[in-house]
Each structure stands twice: as structure tokens, then as C-alpha cells.
Amino acid sequence: MKKGKVYIVGAGPGDPELITVKAVKCLAVADVILYDRLVNPVLLEYGKEEADLIYCGKVPGNHCVPQEIIQKVLIEKSDEGKTVVRLKGGDPFIFGRGGEEAEALARLGIAFEIVPGISAGIAAPAYAGIPVTHRELAGAFAFVTGHGTTGKPDNIRWKYLAKGVDTIAIYMGIKNLPYICDELQANGKNPQTPIAVIEQGTTVHQRTVTGTLDTIVEIVKNEEVTNPAMILIGEVVPLSQRLSWSSHEKREKVFI
Question: Which of 25, 48, 121, 210 could hold 169 in an S-S bridge, CB 3.0 to 4.6 Å?
């Protein structure tokens, strides 16, 4: 039997109109779709009616389906000769564990393709009116995980981020926000550095709260901000006061 192929696909950050044309084409031919918690369910409508849908959602601290099982399913379904889409929120290679899944397939000689997606680290700020780079304010930016294998992101080289990066985009960092702010300040980042926390970025429920490194923890607590949320740190953050558009303008709908 001819082996199938696996497409590891980025679904984008939440707004279903931000999925790519190529991703939609992959969904349209898939026999099996494995999808994550942060994937907008509207996107599943691009799949075939008879496609097998498998939920692989992961809630912080409670993984619904272990990563090893997900990879096993990808292998088994492709061995059956099926076309498989692994649909992941954002971009599969930016804190999406797409690299691990691709490695598992490559070891067994299973055909696969990576379909990049728009990541929340640039999309959520854009919807909040925050450019991650700016000719006058930010010539470098970094994507950083907000948690690690021990819980806290204690393997991050905070001193280099504090001194050498203009804009820092932190994923999955709400729980560890006090630790993150303390580490950056301890390594020389100005306590008055602007910071924004963007909840449910690019969706109709998007909400942005702002402050500084030494005030944001209390603000986030008082505002009861929860995951999913992006943390943006840098001098570009105040631009949101002039450039924010999604909160007060009706978004024009464009359909594929």
C-alpha cells in the first residue's frame, strides 16, 4: 500500500481569515485532521465532510493527548495511505512542537510538508496597533517561551534579552509574568519599560492591557487577564495609543 503524506499546518492566530490559501487547500484534501485547542473551529469547515477529525487540545498543565500519542497517530494514519493534516494554532515551528512531529516522521521516511502560519507573536500586536519593529524604536525582536520544562522559563538567557533585544514577544507567559518581569529587571532592563498583555489576540474578544515592567503584574491581576495571551515588551508598545484599530473599527470581512 502506498504511504500517505502528512501536512503540518499553521492555522494562524485566531481570526479565521488569517489562515493561508495553502493551508485551506491542505484541509480540503485531508482524510484525517488532528487539531489543537487554539485552532478556530470554523477552519474545520474547510475539510471534507467525511474527514476524520481528531481533537488534540492541550490546556496549560493538562495535556489532553500526550505528544507521543499524537505522533503515533500521525504515523499510523499515514501508513494507512491517508492524507493527514496536523493543524496547529499560529505557526507549527514557533513553540508548536512541529519540529518534534516532523522529526518523528522523517525517522520513518514518511513524506511530510510544513505549511507556515501567521504567528500570534506578530499578529496579536498588529491587531493592537503595536509594530514589533520600527525604524526609530526597534531594530531587533525575539520570540520567547513563557514557560519551560520545569514550569518557569529558567533556561532563558535573560541578560541578553534585557540588554540586546528591542522588542520581546513572550508566549504562554501569564502564569510566570511576575518571574519574567523580575528576571528582566534583575538583568538590567529599565523598570519603566512599556509592556502590553494581549488577551485572545486577533479574535473578537481581543483585549489589551498596558503598563510597565514594575506595574504590569498588578494590572494583569486586577484586570483578570487569562490565557491565551501574548506579552509584548519594548518601546514600541506606546504606539498602540495611536495605531490601535481593531478595538474601535468594524473589521471588513474577506472570504476565500
Answer: 121
> Where is pLDDT greater, at 59 or 251?
59
58 assigned to active site:
yes
User: Cell numbers 523598570 label which residue?
Assistant: 191
Answer yes or no: is pLDDT of 19 > 90: yes
Q: Report how far apart, in Å, the C-alpha atoms of 91 and of each of 1, 6, 8, 40, 56 are.
A: 32, 16, 9, 14, 16
What's the Cα-to-Cα distance from 62 to each of 20, 88, 174, 192, rounded to whole Å?
29, 17, 16, 35
pTM score? 0.90
Mapped onto helix, strand or coil, the DSSP state of residue 205 is: coil
Active site residue 36: yes
Of the candidates 5, 15, 77, 172, the residue annotated as catalytic is: 172
Are residues 232 and 132 in contact, defined by beta-carbon separation less than 8 angstroms? yes
Residue 95 has pLDDT above 90, yes or no: yes
How far apart, in whole angstroms, are the C-alpha atoms of residue 76 and residue 184?
A: 44
Of 22, 58, 82, 152, the active-site residue reads 58
Give yes or no: 22 in active site.
no
pLDDT, the chain, mean: 92
pLDDT for res 251: 46
Assign 1 a pLDDT band (cuts: 50, 70, 90).
Answer: low
Catalytic residue among 15, 31, 36, 91: 36
Q: How many residues does the chain have?
A: 256
